[in-house]
Amino acid sequence: MVWLLNPFTFTIGTRGNCEPIICAIILWIILCLMNGRLVQAAFWYGLVVHMRIYPIIYALPIILVLDPLFFQHGAKPALVNWSSRKSKSQQTSSCKKLMDPCCICNFLTSLFTWRRIMFGLISGAMFFLLTGIFFFLYGWDFLHEALLYHLTRTDPRHNFSIYFYHIYLHYEHELSNLEKLVSFLPQILVQLVLVFRFAQDFSFCFFVQTVAFVAFNKVMTAQYFVWFFCLLPLILPWTNMKLRGKGLVCILLWMAAQGHWLLWGYLLEFKGKNVFLQLWVAGLLFLAANTFVLINIIQQHTYSPVFQQSSYAASKKHVKQR
């Protein structure tokens, strides 16, 4: 119902873009990872990054998930029994393990496993093969429109982002390297924190990554909201948020902040009013609403790792520690 009966998703998804196809491929990648079909997951991941560049943000959590503790040769990864959820205290401690310096150090020392290398080679080969084919067919126009354009894109209208007003004021001038860094740095830092905190619960990690990526992006349009709406049904079973309580507050706040922005957008686009400053303030409020909703979703989420350690890997780790 959250996806199929959502008027927002089918309005955006039927106006000429391929967002539902992208969403379906991402859901299929999650399913392939859960079933240990890494070759398929890598193939589809390379394809989806070629079609839309934003799923590149999922590369790091996927690499973190492909841990030798979960994936053993010739064996399907064991899924955690989700019917027995962890308590709130266990959830917090489990989340903090990923941020532990020792855990990060172990990850860096065991980074280059054959599964991670295989996933990178297959997905990278798929991406570069498709990019090469279409570059051969359409030349530099394709490369610019599909990839390079996103590095320099500026949108002075139709943009929920807090950076829109600065972009509007400097539209005829190229942004300096410092300005580009300032716009990307908060986004990168938030992504890294979310990945290292929630990577093992990777469907939830994908969701919070996408919400944060869209909220802090230099350009934000309504089309981008579909990216995380498709992941919302996957995390609802693990939330303690009640619809009649905080859930309703979050929904109404998010819709009100967006409606407030659209009011000023209407006055600008259709009435020709000089309301750029008011529109920018509305963008700030929309970012605050997105941040508030995201924090509440994280606080009310029951941390549920997808995989459990194989008995062989656990015993091997125990012997190594002794």
From TrEMBL:
Alphabetical list of InterPro entries matching this protein: PIG-M
Enzyme class, first EC level, given as a word: transferase
Subcellular location: Endoplasmic reticulum membrane
UniProt keyword Iron-sulfur present: no
One GO cellular component term noted in the UniProt record for this chain: endoplasmic reticulum membrane
Gene Ontology biological process: GPI anchor biosynthetic process
Transmembrane stretches, start-end: 21-47, 53-71, 117-140, 224-241, 248-267, 279-298
Biological or metabolic pathway of the protein: Glycolipid biosynthesis; glycosylphosphatidylinositol-anchor biosynthesis
Keyword Glycosyltransferase included in the entry's annotation: yes
Source species, domain of life: Eukaryota
Any one GO molecular function term: alpha-1,4-mannosyltransferase activity
Pfam families in alphabetical order: Mannosyl_trans
Keywords: Endoplasmic reticulum, Glycosyltransferase, GPI-anchor biosynthesis, Membrane, Transferase, Transmembrane, Transmembrane helix
E.C. code: 2.4.1.-
Membrane-protein topology: Multi-pass membrane protein
Family the entry assigns: Belongs to the PIGM family.
Function per UniProt: Catalytic subunit of the glycosylphosphatidylinositol-mannosyltransferase I complex which catalyzes the transfer of the first mannose, via an alpha-1,4 bond from a dolichol-phosphate-mannose (Dol-P-Man) to the glucosaminyl acyl phosphatidylinositol (GlcN-(acyl)PI) intermediate to generate alpha-D-Man-(1->4)-alpha-D-GlcN-(1->6)-(1-radyl,2-acyl-sn-glycero-3-phospho)-2-acyl-inositol and participates in the sixth step of the glycosylphosphatidylinositol-anchor biosynthesis.
The protein, known as: GPI mannosyltransferase 1
Species of provenance: Solanum tuberosum (Potato)
High-level lineage: Eukaryota, Viridiplantae, Streptophyta, Embryophyta, Tracheophyta
This protein's encoding gene: LOC102581482
